[in-house]
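Re: [ENG-882] Designed sequences occasionally contain unexpected residues at chain ends

Forwarding the minimal case from QA. Structure tokens:
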């Protein structure tokens, strides 16, 4: 009597395409939901405007409602901030300051701070605001 071996069942292929699709969808989700800019100072409520261009101020000078100047959470002065800009490689004629002021800061104090920055050598001063919800 001759014994024949049973045929092996066909081998199922691993489906890596499904795994790649899941990883790709997770990547897209985190790109859309993630934050790419550093967070703003939590004690600062920015001034709201009705129309403005969206941009992030990574190297902004923050002003609290009491008129205190801050950079990355540490207190500074206008002259010290501009000196750090010079040290980071900004040319003397191109010193640009992005000023993110608290909405409760009195306008008189804001004008004083802008004057201090101009006296310290700032050429261009921009006020950072947030877009008001409609």
């Amino acid at each position: 009597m001759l014994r024949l071996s049973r045929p092996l069942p066909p081998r199922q292929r691993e489906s890596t395409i499904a795994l790649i699709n899941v990883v790709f969808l997770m990547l897209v989700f985190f790109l859309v939901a993630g934050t790419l800019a550093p967070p703003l100072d939590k004690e600062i409520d920015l001034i709201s405007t009705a129309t403005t261009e969206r941009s992030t101020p990574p190297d902004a000078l923050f002003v609290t409602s009491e008129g205190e100047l801050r950079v990355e959470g540490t207190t500074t002065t206008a002259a010290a901030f501009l000196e750090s800009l010079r040290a980071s490689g900004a040319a003397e004629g191109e010193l640009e300051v992005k000023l993110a002021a608290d909405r409760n800061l009195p306008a008189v104090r804001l004008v004083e701070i802008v004057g201090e920055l101009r006296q310290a050598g700032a050429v261009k001063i921009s006020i950072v605001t947030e877009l008001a919800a409609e």
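QA comment: On inspection the terminal residues look reasonable. The helical segments are 16-33, 78-87, 107-120. Proposing we downgrade this to a documentation issue.
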